[in-house]
């Protein structure tokens, strides 16, 4: 593919992400249904990006990595109790599900920031990987902000209690010991959970026939 075509595809992708980012930044002005749609769309893109980077890592770098560095370890978010499976998530009270989403997002803000900074100084990764790592770091901050605004709105509607604020402030501890492989593996898993939990929470707050 020519450099021109590559640049065009990147700009198209970036434009779509900027549209979502701008919509989250102005989320205090939109309705609850629209805001749910926006955070779900943003979470879908974030998970897709994490899957792309994890796949690239497995394909190009994993064969040369020490076996111990790729062995499964507890994710730093393992202390956050999450519903196992769709049925359990559907039975989870809305307050608990909202808290889980916020805690997962907050727990990844610092690790992804450090991951991006480390990749920026590494020669083992391509410029495309650097860019994706930067986007992931930015997207988790943006989604965290959007979900916080959404939480405030559904609290005002009486759909969840006001006892959620500040419950997730220490969940990032212990993340710096992870290897890059472990970090990408864990974030891909957690970003998928966030996406699924947001969809379920929307159905709990705004029941629809499709739910």
Automatic annotation (TrEMBL):
GO terms for cellular component: extracellular space. The lineage of its organism: Eukaryota, Metazoa, Chordata, Craniata, Vertebrata. It is found in: Secreted. The keyword Secreted applies. Belongs to the somatotropin/prolactin family. Residues 1-20 form the signal peptide. The keyword Transit peptide does not apply. GO terms for biological process: positive regulation of receptor signaling pathway via JAK-STAT; response to nutrient levels. This is Prolactin. Pfam families: Hormone_1 (PF00103). It comes from Callorhinchus milii. InterPro entries: 4_helix_cytokine-like_core, Somatotropin/Prolactin, Somatotropin_CS. GO terms for molecular function: hormone activity. It comes from the Eukaryota. Keywords: Hormone, Secreted, Signal.
């Amino acid at each position: 593919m020519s450099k021109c075509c590559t640049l065009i595809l990147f700009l198209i992708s970036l434009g779509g992400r900027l549209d979502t980012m701008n919509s989250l930044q102005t989320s205090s002005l939109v309705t609850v249904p629209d805001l749910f749609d926006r955070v779900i769309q943003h979470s879908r893109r974030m998970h897709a990006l994490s899957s792309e980077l994890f796949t690239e890592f497995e394909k190009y770098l994993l064969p040369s990595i020490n076996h111990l560095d790729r062995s499964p370890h507890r994710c730093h978010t393992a202390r956050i109790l999450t519903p196992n499976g769709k049925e359990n998530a559907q039975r989870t009270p809305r307050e608990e599900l909202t808290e889980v989403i916020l805690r997962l997002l907050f727990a990844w803000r610092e690790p992804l920031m450090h991951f991006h900074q480390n990749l920026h100084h590494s020669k083992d990764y391509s410029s495309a990987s650097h860019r994706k790592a930067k986007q992931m770091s930015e997207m988790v901050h943006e989604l965290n902000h959007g979900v916080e605004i959404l939480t405030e709105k559904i609290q005002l509607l009486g759909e969840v209690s006001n006892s959620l604020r500040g419950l997730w402030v220490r969940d990032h501890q212990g993340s710096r010991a992870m290897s890059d492989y472990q970090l990408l593996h864990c974030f891909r898993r957690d970003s998928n959970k966030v996406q699924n939990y947001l969809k379920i929470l929307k159905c709990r707050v705004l029941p629809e026939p499709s739910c």
